[in-house]
Amino acid sequence: MEVESPPITLLPPSSLSLSLPPRPDRRLANQLRPPMCELGPLNRADGSARFAQGQTSVLAAVYGPAAPRFSRKERVEGAAVEVTVHPHYGLATSSEKEKEGAVKALLEAAICLERFPRTVIHVICQVCEDNGGLMACLMNAASLAVINAGIDMKYVPLTISLALISPPSATMKALPSLPPSSSTTAPTSSSTYLLLDPINEEERQSIATITIGISSVDQNVLSCQSMGIMMPSQLFEAIDVAKGAAKALMAFIRMTIEEHSRHISKEK
What we know:
4-stranded antiparallel sheet, Ribosomal Protein S5, domain 2
């Protein structure tokens, strides 16, 4: 059962953000693209989920906990996590290997591995569409698939993507941004702006992109992958924005799980 939401706005936009031209997809700078989630789309997997934000979509499947095919993969202290990422098209490259490592580290920290000794949990992620914020979609889809598999977790990892943008110029007239804070300056000493949940076009024009994982329990930062140049004050501002977005995303995920549970109950 698919659950969709309209674009999620974190805070009432300021007069400055209202005066800026719209982003390429007509969102404000502090809006997430409409999220979509479907739990259990695959019948033969132990758990599965499809997660999408706008035109970026990922299908994830979980197999296990199950006995490993090779004894060398056994861990007495807990389950071993394996992650495979398949690109939208073509063969996997070093970029997919990097994504696999990031998703694996996030899941290993969130899953109660000690409850499943000598087993393997295999997570497979298929990229269906990619229009920016792919790493966040991968991590969110994998987390939801683990939840659907009924595997115990300490918390739900919520991942948010952001882009750091310089002031609109002649080549970026249609690209708006959040008002700069008084403490935020770009590496070039000019003011910069944060865009929430950027699309591909915005990522290409950005100074830096950052993907932040937040815990649903205590709002602690779980992971952080960045590309580009960013000042410490800009990083702290991005973390604050990501925490607000994670709360909104968690409300949507909670609603999705409740709708899925009601749907299962009706079928029985």
